[in-house]
Amino acid sequence: MKKGIHPETRKVIFKDVSCGFAILTTSTLNPKEKEEWKDGKEYPVVKFDISSQSHPFYTGKQRIVDTEGRAERFRRRYARKK
Predict the structure, then answer these.
(1) Which of 17, 18, 43, 16 is CA-nearest to residue 30?
(2) HSE of 56 in the Cβ direction (CA atoms, 13 Å)?
(3) How many CB atoms lie under 10 A from the CB of residue 58?
(4) Which residues contact 28 (CB under 8 A, 6 or more apart)?
(5) Does the predicted model carry a pTM greater than 0.70?
(6) What is the pLDDT of residues 7-48, one digit of tens each?
(7) Among 18, 25, 23, CA closest to 56
(8) Phi and psi for 41 in degrees, rounded to 5?
(9) Residue-by-residue DSSP string for 31-58
(10) I need a labelling partner for 19 at 20 to 30 A (CA). Which of 5, 26, 58, 62 fits?
(11) Strand partners, 72
């Protein structure tokens, strides 16, 4: 690897503020805010709104708004008149 062209990597906590889910991983981001992790050390924190722990698709709480099929609605709307 060439020296000086790669960004510096560090341990960062990614935290979902909607449900409190957090994960410690390596990232090139350098946020100013810090928080203590389970191991007792402080790491920079990146806060975000949604993760796999809070997204309706992954949690199974997704609502199905369309009660009848889209294809059926299309056929009914554009059916040829006799």
Answers:
(1) 43
(2) 4
(3) 12
(4) 7, 8, 9, 10
(5) no
(6) 999 999 999 888 889 999 999 999 999 999 999 999 999 998
(7) 18
(8) -95, 155
(9) -S-EEE-TTS-EEEEEEES--TTT-HHH
(10) 26
(11) none
